[in-house]
Design brief:
The protein is an alpha/beta fold. It is built from 15 helices and 14 strands. The structure holds adenosine-5'-diphosphate (ADP).
Length: 406
């Protein structure tokens, strides 16, 4: 039985095909990149084969889903297929960034669900539009196949009112649904479940999960349920990110608008695309480039170091505040691109947390990367267990999709 997972972004469409009976083995995966631009590309890897990349014009998501289906069926030159027909696909799971106030768990797509999804546009315009395009593409290439939506916000719906309500006039919370929704929920859920398995229980556990990638968020998970998370109404909030500013004094916003004579679009663009590691370093949003600049003692080395120091300090502060919110902490988990691969950053974020009971194995931590699989980074006997757990959002989406449609 095969489940296809689709992640449609504003200019991309990622996909992975899973074999449920074979322990959710990945049969193939691919990426349609730069959709809508003349530079669009299709990358495709059948498990066990080399990645193949071709330039092909994909003017919209409808063409991209058609390319995906052609690749999976072996109809694209140089790409080895793994199914004879799209009817072999039992169901399709879609990653959805924002469920707004309408969805608190994964759902099978119906007309009513499509109407509600359209209402999420107000909360994440670019993403929601892309998700709808991706869904429509799947309806075209797989008519009659069930589709399931899996929301990045769903795992966070257990937050108590005092954690998700902003101190703004209550009418805005109640009528406009302006509140903390969080993001990366599927990833936080996956690593929290894995961590609970390691701890041997869910009830009574207190875990801080750190998803650190281009976008980063940190969650406090008690008894397997989120009680707080760093992202907010949108994924702009929280710690410093690749290009997003995270939490800043809100008064900076009108100040910037006034100084640079920019409007709503301009300030949104500024906070989402020109800040974070890129803005502070003046070099790049990619952590690897910042590390290289510091190591090479380049012209921007000091600014790169500052960008990383800010992030390490902010993560430390979140861990401390979530330890307080949880009333203690049993485990800290690092995941996603930076969390899985950057031992220096993990060590920096945990420095000084010995008082909490963190006893890091610095040698193991320094050499551990995502490719090593689940790894304990703390010493045996450390009161707080520290783990690197590679995230697997696609697996979670495939599993929810199968569970809801079987
Ligand atoms: P996204 O949020 O786009 O899914 P990722 O989870 O892929 O992002 O994370 C991207 C970040 O991870 C980048 O800052 C990148 O530099 C960083 N990263 C990836 N591999 C490494 C590595 N080996 N060492 C340090 N940082 C890494």
């Amino acid at each position: 039985m095969k489940i296809l997972v689709v992640n449609a972004g504003s200019s991309s469409l990622k996909f992975q095909l899973f074999d449920v009976e074979n322990n959710y083995a990945v049969l193939a995966k691919g990426l349609c990149d730069n959709v809508g631009l003349s530079t669009s590309k299709l990358k495709y890897t059948k498990t066990g084969c080399e990645e193949v990349c071709i330039s092909v014009e994909m003017k919209n998501h409808s063409v991209a889903t058609q390319m995906m289906s052609d690749a999976l069926m072996g109809k694209v030159e140089g790409m080895e297929g793994c199914i004879a027909s799209m009817t072999e696909i039992y169901a399709v799971g879609h990653r959805v960034v924002q469920g707004g106030p309408y969805f608190s768990e994964s759902v099978v797509v119906t007309d009513d669900v499509m109407e509600k999804l359209a209402l999420c546009y107000d909360y994440a315009p670019l993403h929601t539009n892309a998700h709808i395009q991706g869904l429509k593409g799947c309806f075209e290439v797989m008519p009659g196949t069930p589709n399931v939506l899996v929301f990045d916000t769903a795992f966070h719906t257990t937050m108590p009112d005092y954690a998700k309500t902003y101190p703004i006039p209550y009418e805005m919370t109640k009528d406009m649904h302006i509140r903390r929704y969080g993001a990366h929920g599927t990833s936080h859920k996956y690593v929290a479940i894995e961590m609970c398995k390691i701890l041997g229980k869910t009830e009574g556990t207190k875990i801080v999960t750190c998803h650190l990638g281009n976008g980063s968020s940190i969650s406090a998970v008690k008894d397997g349920k989120v009680i707080d998370t760093s992202m907010g109404l949108t994924p702009l909030a929280g710690v410093e990110m690749g290009t997003r500013c995270g939490d800043i004094d809100p008064a900076i916003v009108p100040k910037m608008m006034e100084t640079y004579n920019i409007g709503v679009e301009g300030i949104n663009d500024f906070m989402n695309k020109k800040c974070g590691l890129l803005g502070v370093s003046g070099l790049s949003s990619d952590m690897r480039e910042l590390i290289a600049e510091v190591q090479n003692g380049g012209e921007k080395a000091e600014r790169c170091q500052l960008a990383m120091d800010i992030l390490m300090y902010q993560i430390k502060k979140y861990i401390g505040s979530y330890a307080a919110a949880l009333g203690g902490v049993d485990a800290i988990v690092f995941t996603a691109g930076i969390g899985e691969n950057n031992g220096m950053l993990r060590a920096g974020a945990l420095e000084g947390l010995e008082f909490l009971g963190v006893d890091l194995d610095t040698e193991v931590n320094a050499k551990t990367m995502g490719k090593h699989g689940v790894t304990r980074l703390s010493k045996e006997g450390s009161k707080v267990a520290v783990y690197m757990i590679p995230t697997n959002e696609e697996y979670m989406i495939a599993k929810d999709t199968y569970d809801l449609t079987k």
